[in-house]
Amino acid sequence: KQPGLQHKQIIFHQDNAPTHKSVLSMFKFNELKYKLLDHPLYSPDLAPSDFRNLKQFLRGKHFLSNEEAIAAVEAYFVDFPETYFRDGVFF
């Protein structure tokens, strides 16, 4: 949820599938006045499943702004030793 976007307008959260990005699809979204939220590009180096501990840390927390969410994520990483980021993450 994005609190700043809560209103009656339809918001379509699309991924980057070719069918969603086609000229015909984009024309229809425009015609229907849908607001589009782009899905971030897939990165095999940073998959959401790699962050299950972060997800657990954030569970139950609610944020009123992006700044609050960013601060919470930064708080999660603050106690990690520098070597954690330099040497990589291994499972």
Automatic annotation (TrEMBL):
Keywords: Methyltransferase, Transferase. GO terms for biological process: methylation. GO terms for molecular function: methyltransferase activity; nucleic acid binding. This is Histone-lysine N-methyltransferase SETMAR. The keyword Transmembrane helix does not apply. InterPro entries: RNaseH_sf (IPR036397), Transposase-MT_Hybrid (IPR052709). It comes from the Eukaryota. Gene3D superfamilies: Ribonuclease H-like superfamily/Ribonuclease H (3.30.420.10).
